[in-house]
Write a structure and sequence with these properties.
By secondary structure, this protein is an alpha+beta fold. It is built from 14 helices and 20 strands.
């Protein structure tokens, strides 16, 4: 792929070097890395999660944090007020009593009964400004898969190097309620191995950041051969749909992996409504059948990829604080593509235009699509439907 326009060139020039990067999948693979990251920390840990649960894996993480604090590590934990609304007082008290700085990220209240739907949706853990985890995986049993159950499918990346300092600054911004981030570049360093180029991207409407959205549009518009997207709660806006349609007309092979199982039936039926348009435009559709699909990852031309918390819908675009990592490295992305292809082969079913659906089912899907988009737009700015909102941007 070639980034040719001025804005695209500026985007490419904003990439930084990482010492090391590893693609992680939900389940033990991710949580083993998380525990190791906490146990290896020497000075400071920042942990910011949309969902932090008082369950089996939540308590394993809690114990690791408490042990780190006993070693003298300074720890800052922020959990979102919507996503973590079921976090028990007992769990919170254990954090505070251990000397861990803990707070809840709350919505913006305009008046007594009117609030703006801004949420801290990212999932970031940073240790000592040198190692970090960032992606779409929350701290909850459903992402861990206890008792040999299949965890919700999602991804994250482990980063090592001074590039992690940018994620640390993002955490400080949330913790200290600062509007601006300082623009000091990461200090110079020599990579231990061949450096991999990455770009930390944010979406935060309050700070006029639309970086993750821009990444998707730039990559799709510049795609030459292939696009693979794993998307939960897939309700893209018109602009993204037109970009995908234009890419398909250019001969780009587009593969979409969408939920076959969902925790939100309305969202699933709304996505079904798009199937006819997707197939008509020669895009291949696969449904992940083993568990709930929660992944937010894209690969273009086996050269560029993005992974993080950003969903392809209006909530992530306008309401939530999101963080993604863009990676521009042929070897790493090709290896990631092999992992993705194996997941598609072993756990997905391809949907073709020959799948017949009853007339009433098609009507239900159409209603779900328009109702779903209307509800999402409403709760994006005025989240009165608290429980629905919490699940919708999970």
């Amino acid at each position: 792929m070639k980034f040719v326009k001025k804005r695209a060139v500026e985007y490419v020039n904003s990439f930084e070097e990482a010492d090391r990067i590893v693609l992680l999948r939900s389940g033990q693979h991710y949580f083993n890395s998380l525990i190791q990251l906490i146990e290896s920390a020497q000075k400071i840990i920042h942990l910011q999660m949309y969902i932090l649960n008082d369950d089996a894996i939540g308590n394993i993480v809690l114990d690791a944090l408490i042990n780190a604090r006993k070693r003298g590590v300074d720890i800052f934990v922020v959990a979102d007020g919507f996503g973590s609304n079921q976090l028990t007082n007992t769990y919170k008290e254990k954090l505070i009593q251990a000397g861990i700085n803990f707070r809840i990220f709350s919505r913006i209240s305009l008046f007594k009964n009117l609030s703006i739907g801004r949420r801290m949706h990212h999932k970031i853990v940073v240790a000592d400004g040198q190692k970090a985890l960032v992606g779409g995986i929350n701290i909850a049993d459903k992402y861990y898969g206890p008792d040999h159950t299949e965890p919700w499918l999602d991804f994250a990346v482990f980063l090592e190097g001074n590039v992690s300092k940018k994620l640390e600054k993002i955490c400080y911004q949330i913790e200290e309620k600062k509007y601006y981030l300082s623009r000091n570049p990461s200090e110079k360093y020599k990579a231990k191995t061949r450096p991999i180029l990455i770009n930390i991207r944010q979406n935060d409407w309050l700070r006029n950041k639309k970086q993750v959205s821009q990444s998707y549009h730039l990559a799709i518009r510049n795609a030459e051969k292939s696009i693979v997207i794993f998307a939960s709660y897939f309700l893209p806006g018109l602009r993204l749909r037109l970009a995908l349609e234009a890419a398909s007309r250019r001969g780009v092979k587009i593969t979409l992996v969408l939920p076959g199982i969902s925790d939100i039936p309305l969202a699933l039926n709304a996505t079904y409504f798009l199937y006819y348009w997707l197939l008509k435009n020669n895009m291949r559709i696969f449904e992940w059948k083993k568990s709930v699909l929660h992944a937010k990852i894209a690969i273009v031309d086996d050269e560029w990829m993005t992974v993080g918390s950003f969903n392809l819908n209006v909530l992530s675009t306008y309401a939530s604080i999101e963080s993604n990592v863009d990676i521009l490295d042929k070897d790493f992305v090709k290896n990631a593509r092999s992992v993705i292809d194996k997941i598609i082969e072993e756990g997905c079913e391809e949907i073709t235009i020959h799948r017949k659906r009853p007339f009433l089912t098609r009507i239900r899907e159409r209603i779900a699509y328009f109702l779903g988009r209307t509800l999402i737009k409403t709760i994006t700015f005025f989240p009165t439907f608290k429980n629905f909102y919490s699940r919708m941007v999970d």
